[in-house]
Amino acid sequence: MRKLFYEDCHLTQFSATVTGCKQSEKGWLVTLDATAFYPEGGGQACDIGTLGCVNVLDVREKGEEILHLCDGLLTVGETVEGEIDWDRRFDLMQQHTGEHILSGLINARFGYHNTGFHVGAEVMEVDFDGPISPEELSDLEKKANEAVWKNQSVKCWIPSPEELPAVQYRTKRALPWPVRIVQVGDVDSCACCGIHVAYTGEVGLIKILSCVKFHGGVRLEVVCGGRAYRYMTAVFDQNRTVSQTFSSKILETGEAAKKTQDALAKEKFRANELQKQVFTSIAGRYAGRKNVLHFEENLEPGQVRELADRISRAISGFAAVFSESGSGVSYCLATQDGDLRQLGKALTEALNGRGGGKPNFQQGTVAATREEIRSFFDGNFCVK
Question: Do 275 and 374 fall into the same domain?
Answer without folding.
Answer: yes
